[in-house]
Amino acid sequence: MASLKVSLYVDSNSWEPKKVNCTVKALNFTDSKCLVPSFLGGGAFVVSPFCNLKHVRVSRLETEELETSELSLNGFEGNLGNESCVSERPNLGREKGKFNVWKRFRRVKRVSNYRSNFREKDRKSMIVFDENVIDSQNGVDFHAENVGPLSSLEQCNEILKQLERGDNYGKALSFFRWMRKNGKLKRNVNAYNLILRVFGRRGDWDGAEAMIKEMSLESGCELTYQVFNTLIYACHKKGLVELGVKWFHMMLENGVQPNVATFGMLMALYQKGWNVEEAEFAFSKMRNLKIMCQSAYSSMLTIYTRMRLYDKAEKIIGFLREDEVILNLENWLVLLNAYCQQGKLLEAEQVLASMKQSVFSPNIVAYNTLITGYGKISDMRDAQRLFADLKRIGVEPDETTYRSMIEGWGHADNYEEARRYYVELKRLGHKPNLSNLYTMLNLQVKHGDEDDAVRTIEEMMHTSSEKSTILGILLQAYEKLEHIHKVPSILRSSLYDHVLRNQISCSSLVMAYVKNSMIDDALKVLREKMWKDGLFEDNLYHLLICSCRDFGHPENAVKVFTRMPKSNNPNLHIICSMIDVYSTNNDFVEAEKLYLMLKNSNVKLDMITFSITNRMYMKFGSLEEACSVLDAMDKQKNIVPDTYFLRDMLRTYQRCDKKDKLADLYYKLVKRGVVWDQEMYSCVINCCARTLPVDELSRLFDEMLKHGFLPNTVTFNVMLDVYGKSRLFKRAREVFSMAKKCGLADVISYNTLIAAYGRSKDFKNMSSTVKKMHFNGFSVSLEAYNCMLDAYGKEGQMEKFRNILERLKESGHSSDHYTYNIMINIYGELGWIEEIADVLAELKESGIGPDLCSYNTLIKAYGTAGMVESAVDLVKEMRKNGIEPDRITYANLINALRKNDMFLEAVKWSLWMKQIGL
């Protein structure tokens, strides 16, 4: 036994990412210490042979050592299951299955019970420590009969190690607490490492953190990388990226320097979670510490390539050269993939050539990566060359090779070649992956091979692919070609059966049909569906109706609505959408019919219903009904209009001339604390201009400007009119100047300012504004001429009045009713009956004819001139021409009769007014 030796060495020439080659040479069990290779953490550990070794066990040492040393520092995916890589000491000389697991605790002082005729594997040892006795039946077989307060640290640690490897973590924790109570944890880093493994497996991270503080502050243990590697390993195994970050940063905060294994595990963990920021930090720290971890370079390069951060990936490639990293197979493959993903196939070919010059034999993965790269850029000539090279060098193409060739020919839109490789893949007994099936389906759809498309769909249905995904691919392929009308003939058997049974797939199909105006096909699917979900079905019909409307086909929405299943309880959302659809179709009768049906039902109307109905009535000019909708909404106290509906309400009350309603709504807006945006300010100012005091309007306008909102042209003109009528010309000029600077002053702006000056008899500014209007590129409008005529006429400046008339005729503008009415009114005030007759004759000859205002003005003029009979005749003429007299008409007539002492006739007309309700 003294001559038996075992040693370890690493063969750097055969370094591969998944395995470290180890050779068993010598191990002297007579020595108490054995050096551990540096890649396992370094340092020395103590072997305490407290049990007797038998000759029959020695032959197992070689196998055991190889198992514990198969650690991949350059590829942690498969071999991190061996936790010896993160502990301080690897476990040498232990046979699996030799020792039993502790089974129970007993409160006895000491038990030693051995059978006289026992076999090694059936032995039961009772190990006593303090007042707790652990029965190790089917567990660890120790040759020491007693473990107590005087037992050595090595013996206690060995017991803890065996308990940690068992399934019952509670026993390991109980024994650890016993060790703490008996002073076995002072400077005992090994014990803490073992118990941290337990916490890592259980996911007790708070307990692990507390244990680290305890070992540092209470037990006097020096924190080393092995402590944190144990926890980082547990996080790596479970994919807990954030916790891995936490332990790494805590490691650095405590001044502990990581080793190769630390960075290997961390970078592999960050690669799984695609955590770019932490990966960059760890990689930078590794390079600063001059630590060489090949897998870290691969992980960093893979992360950047996957995230399409190709510039950063190039920097990592530069670091590989700068740091003189001896590339292993994983490094070569990752480097090759990085160039292929970027489309740099020339550089990738150079990498492949370098691989061939190194110790690595031709690798099928490398060729597959290049073939995939060429396929992505549709360079199938070079892909075919590489495929041929495989057979030339004696490497058989594998499943991935054929799959990549199918994808490549698919990118190149070569259906025949893709089909050839697809058939060959299946002939060799391989199965196409989902990507291959999707590629073939797209090609078959594009090239009109409908029979093969059906077969491919059936093949996809038998894979693990989501059936809804298959349908989506099919619809996308046909929509791209604008051949969606062919889908009904393709959808057969199992896929169509899935559509009829699955709500999501059914809705996807009918939506595609509706989008392409295949309403009959969509309704057929809905009739044949086998799923039952009333709420989902209503929502689907609502979506179809809205989609038809949004796609610009309201007639299809009507078709869907009329054919959908009828219900005793109308769906509020569907009815609202249909009211909007009928309004779009200008079908007022059907829209109103649906609203009245809702109103008379037990359905509680919501804000959207009132909003849509209000817009419907406003569109068709039914102002009273629009106001009644708002009144009905006010009776439901729980409805809160949104911003859009509030603006509609303001416009409705304005058009209905409901000044009281406008004022109430405005002050409700102020009290409610509604968020005012540019549209709300403009709407309130425009609608409430004739309702609110000028001071309040002015405050709103200033507040709008203060918040940085730019008024539109209408708002500028409204404020011009408000200030002009209030004779606040200074403010009016400020608003006008602001509108000009913003390029928002239009003809109406000038007309409004001219009218304001005219009403105030400020002829100088009025004339000046007309000149500015002409100078700024605006022709003097008919409205401006009318304003000047009215102003000069009412002031009795008939010479200027006539000049304006001449200029109006020369401008080419045709006089309108307002022009003629102004002339009649001015001539009537002066008693110029002949001129009035001329104007009336001209008015009739122009084809315009008198309107209600014209007749009212004429009656007033005839009354002033004492021509009462002519005034009465005008009333009869009005009715003959289909113009119904209003209150002003009768008032002017009665005044004319009174002025001419015809009181009895005046009384008769007054009684007539009351009789007709005026």
UniProtKB/TrEMBL annotation:
Q: Which domain of life is it from?
A: Eukaryota
What Gene3D superfamilies would the database entry show?
A: Tetratricopeptide repeat domain (1.25.40.10)
- Residue spans of the PPR repeats: 188-223, 224-258, 328-362, 363-397, 398-432, 502-537, 677-711, 712-746, 781-815, 816-850, 851-885
Per the record's keyword annotation, is Repeat included, yes or no?
Answer: yes
Has keyword Repeat? yes
What Pfam families has UniProt attached to this entry?
Answer: PPR, PPR_2
Q: State the UniProt keywords alphabetically.
A: Repeat
InterPro entries documented for this protein: PPR_rpt, TPR-like_helical_dom_sf
As for family, the record states: Belongs to the PPR family. P subfamily.
- Please state what the protein is called: Pentatricopeptide repeat-containing protein
